[in-house]
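Write out C-alpha cells for Short chain dehydrogenase, putative.
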Amino acid sequence: MLGTILILIGAIFVATKLYQLACWVRFYFMLPPPEQLRRKYEEPGKRPFAMVSGATGGIGFGFAHTLALRGFGVVLASRSESKLEECAKKIQDDVKAKGKGPAEIITVVCDFATPTEKWLPALVKACEGVDLCLLVNNVGVNNPFPQFFTDHTDEVVEDIINVNIRANTFITKALLPQMVKRNNGGAVLSFGSMFGPLGAPMLAPYSASKAYAYSFSLSLYEEYRAKGIDFLAVNPGYVMSNMSKLKKESWLITSPMTCADTVLRQLSFPDQAGYTWTATHWAHHLQYWAATRLVPERLRLQQIQKIHVKINKAAMRKKAREEAEAAKTQ
C-alpha cells in the first residue's frame, strides 16, 4: 500500500515537472507570429496605440520601433525633446522603408524624476485621443556604478525611487481606466530586472525598485485579469543599452530589438501561456533558475558583491584619473 502511494506521488511529481517544462518550451521557443499581438488587442476600425516610457534609447526604443513596425501607433515619452524627435523620425523612416505604411507617432516630454504633476497631465492628454491598449513601463535609472548603500548620494536614491517606482506606478494608475473600457482589453508591461528577485549588493535601491515592479505587476495581474487586462513583468538579464554599457550581442546578452520581439510575441499568447513574468530570453531564464535553485542564497549574494566591488574599484580609479586631469587643465 505504501509503495503504491509513493509511486503515485512520484508519478504526479514527474508529470507536473514535464508539464512545466512543456509550458516553458512553448513560452520561449514556440512563439506566435509577430502579427498576432495586433490581432489580440485591435478593435474594428481603430489603430491600436502603445505608450512607451523611456523610449529614446535601449529597450524602450526597441519596443517603440518594433510596435510601430507591427502597425501600432506609439506614444513616446522621455525627457529630451530633441531625442524624442530624432527617435520619432527614425521610426517613421524605417517603417516607411519597409513598406509598412505611415507610422503614427506622438511625442511627449516627461522628466520622470520630477513630481508627477509636472509631467503626468501632459502624458494623459496625449493618450486621450487614441485607442490605447498597451503600456510599456520601461523608464528606469540606476546608480552610475555599484556602491555601498551609504555612499549613494541622496539625489541618486531619490531619482531611483521617483523614476523606477513612483513614475511607473502613477502612469499605470492614470492610464489603466482608459484601457479597462476597451472591448478587447489591453496589457501592461512592467520592467524589472533579474536583480529584482535575486538581490544585488551595492545596487540595493535599484534592486529593490525592480523587485517592486515585479510584485506590483503580479498583484495587478490577478486584480484585472477578469477585466481583460494582461500584466506581464519583464525581468531581463543582460541587455545591450546605455545603462548596462553592453555593446555586443551574444547568447547571454540580447539586443533591445530581440528583447522586444520576444516579449511582444510572448504577450500574444492567450493569458500569456500561464506566465506572469518573462526573463525575455531562454538563456536568461536558465540563469535565473540556476541562481535560485542550484546556488545557495548567501553564496550567490557574496559572488555578486565580489563582482560589484571590482567594478566599484575600477570606477573609482577612473574617477580619480579624470579629476586629476581636470585639475591639471585649470
